[in-house]
Amino acid sequence: MESVDPNSRLNIAPLAANTSLRTLAYDAIKKAITEMDLYGQETEIRLDERQLSQDLGVSRTPIREALTVLEQEGFVRSVPRRGIFVVRKSKREIIDMIIVWAALESMAARLATSRASDRELASLRDMFHDFEGEAPTEHMNEYSDANIRFHQTIIGLGGCEMIGEMTANLFIHIRGIRAVSVRQENRSERSLQEHRAIIAALVARDADLAERLVREHTLGLAAHVEKHGRFPS
């Protein structure tokens, strides 16, 4: 049996047995996978049923049931005689996903110009307040988290439930891709400048400009991945 890389362990907490254990296990494992650095390591991320059982404080049966659902949804894959692995997309798949995200988030930005309150739009600036006096490279982990929250918030401010649902399963991969790419080739500096321009367009309620800037910003990520990305083939 293959050993489990300690760096691939999920950040996971024990479950409270007050609802369906399968559902709780599913929610906990999916959340942990979403928060993993999927593309920041070269090795495959293997999940261990026994370890998950210990971490969650339940038997292996609800773990297996939860993993079955997660496999059906495309989050994990079962490899005969090797185990369960977290799914990581190929470079081509990643670029296609970014293109889809660009279309959805840019529409959310357009909708936000008419649906979000002045306070909600102005609050986007607060996410980057800590980086006003210093370069994002001085606080990369914090900036990476703020970057991801920024894009999630725009989706939410659009007020379209279906866009939110459609981006939910893309997010696990988009999050990992952004976390890696923002550290490459001074993308954090360019990213911050583009975020400020997007915020200004949203606050001005310029729907055409906000939509275009968000789309171009995200397609810039696709171009970066095309040129520099190293992902599963």
From TrEMBL:
CDD domains: WHTH_GntR. Residues 19-89 form the HTH gntR-type domain. InterPro entries: GntR_C (IPR011711), TF_FadR/GntR_C (IPR008920), Tscrpt_reg_HTH_GntR (IPR000524), WH-like_DNA-bd_sf (IPR036388), WH_DNA-bd_sf (IPR036390). Keywords: DNA-binding, Transcription, Transcription regulation. PANTHER family: TRANSCRIPTIONAL REGULATOR, GNTR FAMILY, TRANSCRIPTIONAL REGULATORY PROTEIN. This is GntR family transcriptional regulator. It comes from Ancylobacter radicis.
